[in-house]
Design brief:
The complex is a heterodimer of chains A (230) and B (195). With 230 residues, chain A is α+β, with helices and mostly antiparallel strands. Chain A contains 6 helices and 8 strands; from the N terminus they run ααααααββββββββ. In chain A, helix 1 runs parallel beside helix 3 and helix 5 crosses helix 6. Chain B is an all-alpha fold. Helix content of chain B is 68%, strand content 0%. The chains are: A alpha+beta (230), B mainly alpha (195).
Chain lengths: 230, 195
């Protein structure tokens, strides 16, 4: 049997070590058959979850999750909510989760492999930021999305429903501090949903803005932002 | 009694609302999937605090990244359970807490309405029934991997089998379980309740 196809079962059961996981995910980027099989096997492992038979959670868990979410609602002043950080919180572990969400259920699965591979390489890092309990979120005004900023300032943008950049143009991200914008990465907006790590940290007193620029990007913005964080 | 003004929505519609920071939608998703998620995390981790962490981190990831979810590609509940399982397995490996023995009988981990709970109970019995029909070696491989958190290499060592044998037991077991679950869904009486 095809070695990768067989590994799909182990992957769907999370029975792989980190190196096997990484190699398999790299293969998935290029293999329709394995992606289809994985989606199907995930439905089966999801069924296994129903048969796990563990006890009911404490009611307080629901309230804790909702309180955490509420404190991050983008239309509120962003706080720095902290629950007791699990001693075992591991960046690599949450990174894997987002790779899963982005790499496999992301919309940019077909074609354009080179660009996808570079995007995918950032997916793990993006997931680590997005799932970091110590991070906070700041909403964009004028676009559907937000910026998630970790305690170290590493940040990822989450954007949905943006029109693709016109031919010959690109969206450019900026970290704006004391009125000075510094370039923080480019994106095409071709995906229905975008999660991208900013190429520079976002200090607490900075904003994140997006402009439309000529393809290739520029060092200083040529016009006012299309939208920026609150 | 909680007011469930999102109760009529599909899981996928709820995820779309979560992407727009609708807290009620997150609460409804938790009520539907949180109990299963916690039961799964507890089965893997055998520790209440760690299981809560796994569930909380997965729902937090959902809250922040719901916009990336593509409903055509998977059911929302599968997505959430996959996140929780991944997190639980990573935690259990780090904590060296892995267990292979089954749980003592525990009350079922439901958080939803009576109707949801009844459906979950049936679904649990259906999957457990299908598991019992698997060849022993396949069932053992699936249970140790999925509930025990063992990697395929660790399973090979533990069971004294070549890695290729373990891989093939997991693949055949999952494929067979898929058939059994499809069959039991086709027999009717289970198909009308999923949302």
């Amino acid at each position: 049997m095809d070695d990768h196809l067989e590994l799909t079962a182990a992957y769907a059961l999370d029975a792989v070590d980190p190196r096997e996981r990484e190699r398999y995910e790299a293969h998935l980027a290029t293999c329709d058959r394995c992606r289809e099989e994985l989606a199907s096997f995930w439905t089966v492992s999801g069924a296994l979850a129903h048969a796990a038979g563990g006890p009911a959670p404490a009611p307080a868990l629901r309230e804790r999750i909702l309180a955490q979410a509420r404190s991050e609602r983008p239309n509120l002043v962003p706080l720095r909510p902290r629950w007791a950080l699990p001693a075992a919180a591991s960046v690599a572990a949450v990174a894997a989760m987002l790779a899963l969400a982005l790499g496999l259920w992301g919309s940019s699965l077909a074609g354009e492999l080179d660009r996808e591979r570079s995007a995918r390489a950032g997916a793990g890092e993006a997931l680590a930021i997005v799932s970091d309990p110590g991070a906070h979120t700041v909403a964009f005004r004028g676009a559907e999305g937000h910026v998630v900023v970790s305690e170290t300032g590493k940040a990822a943008v989450v954007l949905a429903g943006l029109d693709p950049a016109p031919e010959g143009k690109t969206y450019e991200l900026w970290v704006v501090r004391n009125g000075v914008p510094r370039p923080a990465g480019l994106f095409e907006g071709s995906e229905a949903r975008l999660v991208q790590v900013l190429t520079r940290p976002v200090p607490a007193d900075a904003k994140v803005a997006v402009t439309l620029e000529d393809a290739g990007g520029v060092d200083t913005p040529t016009g006012p932002p299309l939208f920026e964080t609150i | 009694m909680r007011i469930r003004d999102h109760a009529h929505l599909s899981d996928e519609a709820l995820v779309a609302l979560v992407a727009r920071s609708d807290e009620g939608a997150l609460a409804e998703l938790y009520d539907r999937v949180g109990g299963i998620a916690y039961g799964l995390a507890y089965r893997v981790l055998r520790d209440e605090a760690l299981a809560e962490d796994a569930v909380q981190e997965a729902f937090l990831g959902l809250w922040r990244a719901a916009a990336t979810f593509i409903p055509e590609r998977a059911k929302a509940s599968t997505w959430i359970l996959t996140l929780v399982h991944r997190r639980a397995v990573d935690l259990v490996r780090r904590e060296e807490r892995r267990r292979s023995e089954p749980l003592d009988e525990a009350p079922e981990g439901a958080t939803g309405s009576a109707e949801d709970n009844a459906w979950l109970h049936l679904e649990r019995e259906r999957v457990q029934g299908a598991l019992r029909l698997l060849p022993d070696q396949q069932r053992e491989a699936l249970e140790l991997a999925y509930y025990g958190g063992f990697t395929q290499s660790e399973l090979a060592e533990r069971l004294g089998q070549p890695l290729g044998t373990i891989k093939s037991r997991m693949f055949s077991g999952l494929a067979r379980l898929r058939e059994l679950l499809d069959d039991s869904a086709e027999r009717g009486s289970w198909t009308t309740t999923s949302s």
